[in-house]
Specification:
Number of strands: 13
Order of helices and strands: HHHEEEEEEEHEEEEEEH
Strand order of the largest sheet: 1-2-3-6-5-4
Mean pLDDT: 86
CATH class of the largest domain: Mainly Beta
Shape: globular
Number of domains: 2
CATH architecture of the largest domain: Beta Barrel
Largest sheet: 6 strands, antiparallel, barrel
Length: 258
Amino acid sequence: MLAFLKKHARIVMRVAASTLFFLFVFYSVYSQYSIPSKKEIQNNKNVSSFYNTSYRSTIKKSRLSTVQIISMVPEEGLISAFTGTYFEAYGDFFVVSVAHGIHGPCEYTKIVFDDKLYSCKKYIYVDTHVDYSIIQIDEILERKPIKIPRDLPKNKQWIKSYSILNKVVYTGYPNTLGPLTISGEIAGFSPSQHAYMISYAWQGSSGSGVFDHSGKYIGYVVAIDVGQTELGLQILQDVVLIVPAFNIDWTKVITEAE
């Protein structure tokens, strides 16, 4: 009887071990081939853990405040698509971008995000000299605005923000793709007070907000450089011109907002 019980116990143990091994293999295979949802993978908050907390926060701020702008002149068949930064100031909501993308009246300019169109309420200011525009809009619940003036550098923070080889980031719609988040570094300055950034940009990137590594809005993409070569004019898409944000008259949002 004792021998029978020992033999029976060994059989039970083998069955239990086999079952546990099968469950372990099944779990390993399931875990390996179980893919997270597309929504999880493509979430704006899914930022590489390679960077420190401050820079990851900056990347998220850049992505969450970026919108696309479409401006049209229907009777001429003219349309342009470019990028802007959604911001809040004194309880109202706006988008800051370039002026050279604005073609038609406010009613024919739309703010676009996630295939939804948001109307322009008013052109607060369109400065063709400095090349910037401020557009008043209604609140976009799907976006998180930066705060003006809180998210601008203060006093000597500007010096640090524009220090040579300082790490910066912007999110835009180059060639209407995107939003794409692109990093860069401050490389130098032009006599016209533009800053040069070593990065990448293309048509549609104009107006993209540039943030320094601490999350301050320091300016926007206005153009890419063009150089003369033996083959003629060549586009240097890795040399990007930035208009510093201190060239923007932010007081217009107080005096001109509806």
